[in-house]
Design brief:
Blueprint: H1 2-13, H2 53-57, E1 65-66, E2 79-80, E3 97-100, E4 108-113, E5 116-121, E6 128-130, H3 133-155, H4 172-184, H5 187-210, E7 218-220, H6 221-245, H7 251-270, H8 281-295, H9 302-329, H10 334-350
Antiparallel strand pairs: 1-2, 3-4, 4-5, 6-7
Helix pairs in contact: 3-7, 3-9, 4-5, 5-6, 5-7, 6-7, 6-10, 8-9
Amino acid sequence: LATQYVQYVFHQQATCAPNCRCTCRAEVNPTSSGNFAGRPPMPYVPATPSVDRNAATSTTRSNISSRGGSSSSSAAESPVVEISTSTATLPSSSPDATAVSANSDDENVATYRGGSTEASVCEPSPKKITLSTKAAVLAGCALAFNGGYVNGATLSGILSAENVKQASAAVTGAWTNSALGIATGNYAQALFNAKCIGSYMGGSLIASLCNPFPKPFEISTDRVSPAFLIGSLLLYASSSVASKSGGSNKAYIYLAAIACGIQNSVTSVLTSNLVRSAHFSGITSDIGTFLGQVIRGNSANAMKLRVFCCLAASFWTGGLISFSVTDALSSSSLLISAAFFFAIAVGLMVA
């Protein structure tokens, strides 16, 4: 990869003027009195099968030979660069050239300016935590409990001055209610439910922006942690809005829905949809499907059946407890979920 990158750099630099005699041009005809006609592609150089990472960090210069285009042109005017298979650099006469070391991860970059070497090393690979299936399920159950808790707080209507009861961890009903609002001419209802749908979807969008290339059962701490930190701030804001407005401002529902969307997206992509911590319509359907298979002797999805039952029970328990807590603490009940998200974010940072 490093060798191909160097070849790409040479091709990019080969776009200079035809009469240019800098090192970015390759000599075509040694007897052409220094005229550089044509731009032949750089020869393919196979990469070294294995390179010592420590040795690659302190990049050594490649074999460079310079020869003039004719007897009248000097070597400085028409150098020819030969790239070795271990490392590749431009000659020190180049005023500003960049060489990439032959590292399999392309992490170490050395910059040569005016012949002096300034080694700058790219940031290391992010810290990653590998999850076992059991650990993923346990973490998913904790998050499912939190999802049920937040959903119960907004769905109970206790936080609303108008007794608005709206789910924040599921939007199946919101899709239908928005359609019914349009059908009956109740555009306020349609708009409210559309905002709930957009909020939940926006939470999933935020999670994917933080971790665009997830790998199943592998947590990149510097990518997942920001998602939970954002969720924590959103739940704190939700509690604040509900408290200051006395429940008249429905924005607290939207903010809670965004946080639930973040949570569900993170757990889904990191477990290949084995663990979903919100929006349990699909899980409910799967439980019935897998239960029927087990009854008829097909135990291929028995493990998933057990996992989904645990997740559903956790979500249900969170909703059960949220009623009493919300009734006692009102809007401050959402601060518990905000603190839970914040603890996860900090724990991943220091892991």
